[in-house]
Structures are given as structure tokens and as C-alpha cells.
Amino acid sequence: MVGLKEELLKSIWHAFTALDLDRSGKVSKSQLKASGGRRARWGARVLSHNLCTVLNVPHDPVALEEHFRDDDEGPVSNQGYMPYLNKFILEKVQGNFDKVEFNRMCWTLCAKKNLSKSPLLISDEDAFKVWVIFNFLSEDKYPLIIVPEEIEYLLKKITEAMGAGWQQEQFDHYKIALNTSREGLSAWELIDLIGSGQFSKGMDRQTVSMAINEVFNELILDVLKQGYMLKKGHKRKNWMERWFVLKPNIISYYVSEDLKDKKGDIILDGNCCVEALPDKDGKKCLFLIKCLDKTFEISASDKKKKQEWIQAIQTTVNLLRAGSPPPHKEARQKRKELRQKLLAEQEELERQMKELQAANENKQKELETVRKQLEAAAARAAEEEKKRLQTQVELQDRFSLELEREKMVRQKMEEQVAQKSSELEQYLQRVRELEEMYKQLQEALEDEKQARQDEETVRKLQARLLEEETAKRAELEKWHLQQQQTIQMTEAEKQELENQRMMKEQALQVAMQQLKQLELERKEALEQYEEVKKKLETAANNTKSWKDKVAHHEGLIRLIEPGSKNPHLITNWGPAAFTEAELEERQRSWKGKKAASE
Predict the structure, then answer these.
(1) Domain stops at, among 114, 133, 155
(2) What φ, ψ does residue 119 adopt, rounded to 5°?
(3) Are 226 and 184 in contact (CB under 8 A)?
(4) Can you give the residue ranges of the PH domain (predicted)?
(5) Can you give the residue range of the structural domain that contains 53?
(6) What is the Cα–Cα distance from 315 to 326, expressed in whole angstroms?
(7) In whole angstroms, what is the distance from residue 85 CA to residue 81 CA?
């Protein structure tokens, strides 16, 4: 996960620097003067939300707002943006995300600001792929650069993909000019270099685009090999042409090379094996891929393609068994280790040069001591010569008789003087050389003294700038205190409005409950009304039925009672047994009994 985190950080660094923030997440002074860093904080929030989306990391808006609140612990503090990025986003990344979509999001945020406005020989999509390759090959230090060795590696890969010859002499001249001015190129300078066509002269845009896409597939998408082959089906046993893509742990096959319609995967592990098959069923150049659960028969277009695919798949399986990374990643790691080794050797050489320089200074000091000793010896020799001459005069006066012997002694003494003079001349020549070296040392001391004076001037200038920054910081803190007071007043007004809203909501709830109770009572009354209505209809029906029955029976029965003085009714059978008044009385009595029985 550490390697994945470093790869993600490079793309995020480009998007992050496009927000006018430094790498620690602090807002620049110009932003603070212009808008108090509000634009930078908004950009950091947008970047964080987009990162959570493309990396499939749960978005925590509470933590985001807490980190970016406008106080001393926000993005303008010493904590900055990087601690939030590491704690709440990068540490939660599981690897289940689309790397191309992630890189495209970061590219969108930074390309518009940094991409050159001059016309290039490559499209924006090709520039995006070169930018992603730069992040893969760049050094693990910021600001990101790609060193000349990696530039040469990338240009060679693109040239080989175009089928052109590599111009080593031309690149050597470019490398010499580059090393004299800087350590390497930025991503945007690399895009300008490839887009200028300096190393792809004579090639059209389509050829360059295809070469960049091939290198992108290999280095970024881990495509080790791809091409059309025939595959035998597992169910219908028919042969279908598919576009195969080999990656470090999987072989995917599609309907065509546009990769839109994926038909399946062949999962590779250390237990898989690949072997050639003899020609059969009219199919040639056959080979077999054996996995734990399935076996796949594949037919290549020719023997060369067959051997290339067998070798590529076997190499991939061997790497899986050994737990090694893909070849291009392993090669990148070896190149990086070699550069680190050369850098260590260069540092060791510089250390040795410093030791030699110190030893040389010690030798100079010893030579100065010898020069002083020679000067003292010359002074002693002059003094001795003076004494000798005095002694010679005294001896000449005192021993005039011994002149011949003195001449002989004098000749010997002259020979000695000549020898001493020769030695003295050599000493004087050495002294002159030492004096010349002493003058050079004096000049070096004067240069060092002047450098110290310049350093003191710069230190005073830095102190003055620090005082100005302290005054500006105090003014910013004053503005911040006024803003806090305004926020507190706004919070009190907001709380009062919230209380009024809560009271209105409670009154609304009580009214709603009363409305519901009235609605229930209305429904119950309606049900009682329907029930009474049904009973009335039933009673009416029953009454009508009993009236018909009584009329039928009373027409057949006639009671014999004493006659009445009132006129009698005459029926079809003779005089009626009841008068009309008695019949009405009996009808009322019958209705009363019927009502009582019900």
C-alpha cells in the first residue's frame, strides 16, 4: 500500500498545486490579502470530495468541515491539508478503483492552468497519457521532476513503438544542454518536448499517438502483450476471434480491440501452466493454458506469434510464482537503485575531495612554517658571514706573516661561501614561491571576508522581513477576532428563530391531532348512520310483508259476535263480522303487538 500511496500522491500533488497552495496545505500570502483564503479552502473541499468519489472512499463531510472550519486549526494553520489527506482518504484506499479515471480527474484540475498554450503535435488525450507516464517515472521528491536517464528511457520506448531509429547523438547533445541548467524536466516541460516533435521528426500525428498509447498501456495499464487470436468455446466448442490482453495476473479477451465488449477473463496464478499443442481440427499454431478450474485452447495467427504468447504467459506465471513485480516496474526500480548508488559514489567522491582540500591546506601551513625557518636560517647565515669577515680582518692584521697559509684558508672559505651562496639562492627561490602562495592565500581570505559581509547583509534583510510579517500576522488576528464576534451574534439570532419555529411546529402538530380525532368521530357517526339506515330498510320490508299476510288471512276469517247498531260491511260472502271502526281498532292493536315482538 506504500507504493500505491506514493503513486496517488504524485497525481494529487499536481491537482493540489493547481489550487495555489504549497505542499503543506498553507494558503499563500497573496491569497490571504486577496480573499482571506476562501477560494483555496473551496478548492481543497472540491478536491477532497472528488478524491473520495473516484477512489471509492466513504465521504465524511463532518470531518471535512471540522478540518476546514475558519479558525486556527483549518487549512491556514500549521496542520495544513496533507494530514487530512493521509488520515481520511489515502489510509482508506483499498485499490478497488479505476486508476485511469482517478488520473483523469487530477489531470482535469491541473491541465488547464499548466498546459502550454502553444500548438503541439500531439492531442490532449496523448498529453494526458504522457502526464500519467511522467508520474510513474518521476523521482519520489517534490517538486516532481523526471531525470535525463528516465527521459531517455521514455523517448527510446516511444521511438521503438513508432518503428524508427534511436538518435543517441542528438539526445546526448540535448542531455548536455539540460544538465548545465537543471536536474530534470517537469511534467509540462516533458509534454512540450514530446509535443514539439524534436525526437519524432518525419512521423505523422497518428503514428506518434499510437506509440504513446502503446507505451501507456505497457507502463501504466500493465499490458504485457495484446493481439487477436482464436479461442475455442467451452460449451458450443466453436472457434471465435477475440482480442486478448495479457496483464501481470490476468488475461482478458474482448470482441475487438476497442475493449468495449468484454467476453471473459483467464485468472493467472503460480499454479497455471502453458504448453504447445499439435495442429488439429484444421486449426494451427495451437497452445493450451491450464488453470485450476478451466483449460483454454487458443490458436495464434502464426508460429512466431504462438511462441511469443507462450513465452510471455510463461514469464508472467514465473513472476507470479516468485512474487516479483512486472518487468517494467522492476526495471524502473533497478534504474532508481543504480542512480542512488551513483549519487552515493558522487557524494563519497566529494567527501574525498574535501579531505584532499583540507590536506592541501595543512601542506600550505607546513610550507609557511618552512619559509619562516628559511628566513631565520638566512638571517643567521648573514650574521655568521658578518662575523666571519670581522674575524678575517682581525686574522689578516694579526697574522700577516702567515699570508700564504691564510690564502689557502681563504680559498677554502670562498669555496664554502660559493656553496653556501648556491644553497642560499635555492632557499631564496623557494621563499619567493612561498611568498607567491602566501599572496594567493591572502586573496582567498579577502574573498571569504567579503562573503561574510554579504551574508550579514542578507541576515539583516531577513530580520526586517520577519518583523513586517509579524505585524501583518497581528493585523490578521485582529480581523479574525472581529469575524468571530460577528459569527456569535448571528448564532444567537439563529437560535431565537429556531425556538419560534419549534413552537409553531408543536402547535401545528396539536391541530393535526385534533383534526385526526374529528375525522375518526365523523367516520364513526357515518358508520352508525349507515347501520340505522339498514335497520329502517329491513323494518319497512318486514312491515310490508306482514301487511300482505294479515290482509290475506283477515279476508278468510270472520268472527261471530253480537251485532252492532252501526252499519255492517258487506263482503262477497255476506255481511262482515266487524264494522269499519272495529277493523281499524284491531289493525292498530296488531301493529302494536308486532312492534313489541320485534
Answers:
(1) 114
(2) -65, 140
(3) no
(4) 222-318
(5) 1-114
(6) 10
(7) 6
Same domain assignment for residues 287 and 364 = no
Q: Is residue 427 included in any domain, yes or no?
A: no
Do 303 and 356 lie in one domain? The reply is no
Burial class, 51, CB count within 10 angstroms (exposed 0-12 / middle 13-18 / buried 19+): buried
**Residue 297 in contact with residue 277, Cβ under 8 Å?**
yes
Residue 342 in any domain: the answer is yes
User: Does residue 83 form part of some domain?
Assistant: yes
Preceding amide of 119 cis, omega within 30: no
Of 211, 313, 227, 233, whose CA–CA distance to 269 is shortest? Answer: 313
CA-based Rg of the chain, rounded to a whole angstrom?
55
- Structurally, the chain folds into a number of domains equal to 3
Query: 589 in a domain, yes or no?
Result: no
User: Which residues on adjacent β-strands are paired with residue 254?
Assistant: 243, 262
pTM of the complete model: 0.54
Q: Does residue 368 share a domain with residue 278?
A: no
Instruction: Encode pLDDT of 374-415 as tens digits.
Output: 999 999 999 898 888 888 888 777 777 777 877 887 888 888
> 509: burial class by Cβ within 10 Å (0-12, 13-18, 19+)?
exposed
Over the range 216-252, which residues count as b (16 or more CB within 10 Å of their CB) and which as e?
bbbbbebbbbbeebbbbeeeeeebeebbbbbbbeebb
Distance CA 110, CA 45 (A): 16
| Residue 99 and residue 4 share a domain | yes
Q: Are residues 3 and 89 in the same domain?
A: yes
Burial zone of 291 (CB within 10 Å; 0-12 exposed, 13-18 middle, 19+ buried)? middle
pLDDT in tens, 15-49: 888 875 444 444 443 443 344 356 666 777 788 88
Q: Are 315 and 296 in contact (CB under 8 A)?
A: no
Domain boundary among 78, 98, 114: 114
